[in-house]
Amino acid sequence: MIRLIGFSVMVCVISFSAIAQKKLRIDDALPPELNPNMAPFYHGVASGDPTQSAVIIWTKLTLESSFKKDITVSYKVSETPDFKVIAQSGKVNTTLAKDYTVKVDVTGLKEHTTYYYCFYYKKKRSITGQTKTLAENPTEMSIAFAACSNYEWGYFTNYRFIAENPKIDVVVHLGDYIYEYAPGGYGDTTIGRKHVPAKEITTLQDYRTRYAQYRLDPDLQLAHQLKPFVTTWDDHEIANNAYVDGAQNHQETEGDWYERKHAGKQAYYEWMPVRETPEHELYRAFRVGNLLNLIILDTRIAGRSVQLDSISDPHFQDVDRTILGTDQYQWLTQQLKSGSKWQIIGNQVPFGPMYTGAENNTKQVYMDGWDGYPAERKRLIDWFALQALENVVWVTGDYHASFAMENDLTGTKDTSDNVSVEFIVTSITSANSDEWTDNQAELDAEQAAYMANNPQLRYLNGVDHGFMVLHVTSEKAEAQFYYASDIRTKTGKLRLEKLFTVLSGSSVLKE
Ligand SMILES: [Fe+2]
């Protein structure tokens, strides 16, 4: 393995022909089995953050046998896959400082239109990507939600199912797109999908290498090739249980936290088709006419206070403990008054109150979720009630299980005080609770206790891996829970297991 810095030193001391002979790569992240037909765009293409007139398109160059500081790439965008009529085209530079990733914010596009795009470097051409702009004022929209895609735990078959579903307009990834652990540090590596680099990632080059590995996965590559993504990070894009000033999985021996956080964020912005704003905040919204406002939160890095260990901590109810932070809270309340019929909130960790078990006769909660930040949540829910806000749907990742629940403040079956509904999306691959134990009786008891302790829950599946599609019209929002039958082989089949409907104005789940 040749480190990037080592390579740049080597070009000073050995001849150009020697480099060509050795076929040195700029990038040390890549396994030897690269598809030569894709050179130098081995990592495919991606698109994201669509609006009614613009979309981000992305690719990455990996060059062999030559090295230039700046590389110019050209791109073409067309309404047809044969590119006979070009809608937009141009040139863009990329450098080592961007890990030779390429991002273009293509503007001047038509609303609700499918576009095809590709990149060129010299005579080489990338695969063709397909994307779609948002509609100005549609009567319906289908959004797929995905979360928690650990490479080691299984094949990304669920991403392929998303790619193959023609009804999905946009894919929202709620975070844990990568995991930071060393091989076997969290995943089960028995099917041979082992993390690279073979260490916990802490530096910029480490994070870049990990993204490069994930983005060579053919199922993930296909999903990015065929669908526009809207992504946000959770904790594992940097380190487990991250917050503004640290993370459970960051130790002093691993260097400075802020440098590590900066490295993780930089690699994320390089590798994900995310529009970068001057404020450099990841929370953002996509208004889709009168139908819906898609609000994407950052409950990790923007304003989260440190997690406490238990609800007995004397600071548990402190009003200055936040999961959003002041600026994002203000921004969210503005977004919730968008005027669109539905407020769809893409959110990392469970919002609604939920008991996870009991210790010493005291009910426990998930301290890394909104349950760990009760003062800020109450402030928000009180504001919901004051505004008589309707049609708020939370869609949440992080939890590695599927839930459907109504958000009320009293934890009862009485639906009159519901303020919103929430769907928790299971993982693409990351371990559900059944993958940590063979004790079926214990699992059944755990699931039964969840349902008994949480009357606001309408559904729980703690076994399957998949994604959720939210189909929204002005009359209703329908959540469709899809699962792969198997992620430990490549032969998993797709099934639709559960449907829930929320009628406009109700905040009540109907099967
Ligand atoms: Fe996760």
Characterize the largest beta sheet: strand count, sense, and whether it forms a barrel: 10 strands, mixed
Total number of helices:
9
Which architecture name of the largest domain does CATH use?
A: 4-Layer Sandwich
Low-confidence blocks of residues? 1-29
Arithmetic mean pLDDT: 90
Oligomer category: single chain
Structural class: alpha+beta
Main sheet: strand order: 5-2-1-11-10-9-23-24-25-26
Distance between the termini: 54 Å
The dominant shape is: globular
Bound molecules: fe (ii) ion
Helix content: 10-25%
User: Radius of gyration over alpha carbons?
Assistant: 23 Å
- Name the CATH superfamily assignment of the largest domain: Alkaline phosphatase D (PhoD)
* Structural domains: how many: 2
**Beta-strand residue fraction:** 25-35%
CATH topology of the largest domain: Purple Acid Phosphatase, chain A, domain 2
Q: What is the level 1 CATH name of the largest domain?
A: Alpha Beta
Number of strands: 26
